[in-house]
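Same chain as my last thread, 123 residues:
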Amino acid sequence: VQLQASGGGLVQAGGSLTLSCLASGSINRINRMAWYRQAPGKQRELVARAPTDGAINYADPVKGRFTISRDYAKNTVDLQMNSLRPDDTAVYYCNAGLWAIVAANQQSFVELWGQGTQVTVSS
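reply #2:
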């Protein structure tokens, strides 16, 4: 099982970008998918989380500007980012907690990270 993220890039302040992430492999059930980010010199932080059973939540700095959405049939999660600001510049990571099928009638819970995609917002 793996996560593959895409969609980063360079955008001017006030612009928009959409990040996408696909979970693939032998997956039984995805408990949650989320986006994190890590700016230079800072710790990785949660941006938005979309649990399968539960409410979506956003970090305060992105509330009202970012929208996380999941396609449960395709095992994807998108992050629509609007009104981008220079302080949104970071490497964005897709994250998932899921039950992977490891053998017949056997599953294992795994925490996955995507490879990271750079988002740069110029002023």
